[in-house]
Write a structure and sequence with these properties.
The complex is a heterodimer of chains A (about 130) and B (about 280). With about 130 residues, chain A is an all-alpha fold. Chain A contains 4 helices and no strands. Chain A is about 65% helix and about 0% strand. Chain B is an alpha+beta fold and about 280 residues long. In chain B, helix 2 runs antiparallel to helix 3, helix 2 packs antiparallel against helix 6 and helix 3 runs antiparallel to helix 4. Chain B is elongated, with a radius of gyration of 24 Å. Classes of the chains: A mainly alpha (about 130), B alpha+beta (about 280).
Chain lengths: ~130, ~280
């Protein structure tokens, strides 16, 4: 990742070697070979198929009883997280992004988990925010 | 003065500025929706056992809308990839499909909302609730189609809308006709209807956001999401229409605009991926 910034600093056209670099830096627009993009497009279509399957899967899984309702919730959330990861990773190009974006998202994930933790914690009757009789 | 770093990467970030901007904005959006999901968890876990309504929405409609949004996400990224290989014509086709998907999504969503606003629960004097869809309302009576009776004390988990919902009301009068939901329309005189204890208003209420906690959080979450769909569609539509002139003057900057609007659109899709199971299936 470190060499990305030096490339950008000298405004060199994006690395042409592997297919992942979809024009983050400098002259992204037209410096790309058609091969790179064709590869990307194939990836997008695969992800599209996976998302369709995931949607059908989550509907199908909701009709099955996995022992308890919480198990059903877990199954639905796992499928949703996988789908979300596919969208974020490939459509939003997060599998190959600059450090700064990872930093921003890392902070977001931290605060999001914190928010959910505080939510669940506040519902725990044993937590000290509830007045004791 | 020109806006700096619209196409060239800034030295310290390695990114063009708009990309940093949209990601910071999306980070704040995660927290916005996160707060509402947190409210959902609080309401749902805090509800008395058996009182949280499930299967109140049409799963087929929700599934179609999910697929529509996923398709639009693909066309957005394909439109951007088309610009990367100088295929402005393909870009236009893909983004047209995106906008059509957005309109389809909003059309289905509108139909679903309308269905809830015409879905009524009428409380009779003996506490029985008659649940069905509005046929007509006159000065002194209301007529509901597919009426179902929920006796006082019966579980609130009784769906009266949608198809194939597990019936918790079968013990009531609705079973008399044999078929599910094919009972004749029922006209209720206002004289049979109970009144609210303090306000004295008739207990006739549709499934709007005020109906119960579930409807409240449903309308809040999907309403905010729908606003995002509309906003995203407006931006994408602008860049497809008058905004596309930039392709001929500054193609790189235009391509970046498409990428940034695309990132927003993918986020909208991503939120729906969580909303669908949470509100429709669980």
């Amino acid at each position: 990742m470190a060499d990305h910034s030096t490339h950008a600093a000298t405004k060199v056209a994006p690395a042409a070697g592997h297919g992942g670099h979809s024009g983050h830096a400098g002259h992204g627009g037209h410096g790309h070979g058609h091969h790179d993009v064709a590869k990307e497009v194939r990836k997008y279509l695969l992800v599209f198929g996976a998302l369709m399957v995931g949607t059908i899967l989550t509907v199908w899984a909701s009709k099955i009883h996995f022992g308890s309702h919480s198990m059903n919730v877990v199954v639905a959330l796992v499928i949703a997280i996988v789908k979300a990861a596919l969208v974020a990773g490939f459509f939003m190009h997060l599998i190959d992004e600059r450090k700064l974006i990872y930093g921003v998202l890392g902070a977001t994930v931290f605060f999001f988990i914190g928010l959910m933790y505080v939510t669940l914690w506040s519902m725990d009757p044993g937590s000290f925010i509830h007045l004791k009789r | 003065m020109d806006i700096p770093y619209t196409t060239h990467a800034r030295e310290d970030t390695g990114l063009y500025n708009a990309k940093v901007g949209i990601w910071l904005f999306l980070a704040s959006e995660v927290m916005l929706f996160g707060a509402l999901f947190s409210a959902y968890i609080l309401l749902r876990v805090g509800a008395q056992p058996g009182t949280w309504p499930i299967h109140l929405l049409s799963v087929p409609l929700g599934t179609v809308n999910t697929l529509v949004l996923i398709l639009s996400s693909v066309t957005v990224v394909m439109a951007w990839a088309s610009l990367k290989v100088n295929r402005f014509d393909r870009f236009k086709i893909f983004q047209t499909i995106t906008v059509l998907c957005a309109l389809t999504f909003m059309g289905i969503k509108t139909y679903e909302y309308r269905d809830k606003f015409t879905h009524y629960a009428v409380t009779l004097l003996d506490g029985t609730v008659v649940d069905g869809h509005l046929v007509e309302r006159t000065a002194n009576s209301i007529t509901l189609s597919h009426p179902k009776e929920i006796k006082p004390g019966a579980p609130v988990n009784a769906p009266a809308g949608g198809h194939g919902a597990p019936a918790a009301t079968e013990g009531g009068h609705a079973a008399a006709d044999g078929d599910h939901g094919h009972a004749a329309d029922r006209t209720i005189q206002f004289s049979e209807v109970a009144k609210h204890e303090s306000t004295g208003r008739l207990l006739i209420q549709n499934y709007g956001p005020y109906h119960n906690n579930y409807m409240a959080i449903y309308f809040t979450l999907t309403g905010l999401h729908a606003l995002h769909v509309v906003g995203g569609a407006l931006v994408i539509g602008f860049l497809l229409g008058p905004g596309s002139k930039m392709w001929f003057s500054d193609p790189e900057r235009f391509t970046n605009r498409i990428e940034v609007s695309g990132l927003f659109w993918h986020f909208v899709d991503l939120v729906w991926i969580f909303l669908f199971p949470v509100l429709y299936l669980l």
